[in-house]
Design brief:
This protein has 146 residues and is α/β, with parallel strands linked by helices. The chain has 5 helices and 5 strands; from the N terminus they run βαβαβαβααβ.
Length: 146
């Protein structure tokens, strides 16, 4: 019998965060899992540029600034948490459709798993949440954190 050193677990995990309570829980869960497995964590924030279309110029500027502040806050939280637990991570902030960007980045980094928070929007029971769409894509194991 030969003993194999190392782990058969994930090497790269992707977690989607958007500042919501469930996404922050997903981030914490993913950080713990990545730390225990010695995996690299890719933290992804996706802004929706289309959300600013149709807004008055002043309102759009305020919304963009709030989005930039959200990115800075999430990046800071990730850096502080990673420093405390000794986690290797990358923070990616991109613009576009959250589902499409998570799929693109997970494929790009050869993710072994994707972690997202459960949607709290009632309409997603009928139209489908990002988590359901990721599961249906069937390209990686998907963990949905409540």
């Amino acid at each position: 019998m030969t003993f194999e050193l190392g782990t058969d677990g994930p090497k790269v995990l992707v977690v989607g965060v958007d500042g919501s309570t469930t996404s922050l829980r997903a981030g914490a869960y993913a950080a713990g899992l990545a730390r225990r497995q010695g995996a690299h964590l890719v933290v992804v924030y996706v802004s929706r540029p289309g959300a600013f279309v149709g807004m008055a110029p002043g309102a759009a500027a305020v919304a963009r600034q709030a989005d930039e502040e959200m990115v800075a806050d999430l990046r800071r939280q990730a850096e502080e948490g990673a420093a405390i637990i000794g986690l290797k991570f990358t923070f990616r902030s991109v613009a576009g459709d959250p589902y499409g960007e998570l799929v693109r980045i997970a494929d790009e980094v050869s993710a072994d798993g994707v972690i997202v928070g459960a949607s709290t929007q009632a309409g997603h029971r009928f139209a489908g949440s990002i988590a359901i769409r990721l599961v249906k894509a069937g390209r990686w194991p998907v963990t949905v954190v409540p």
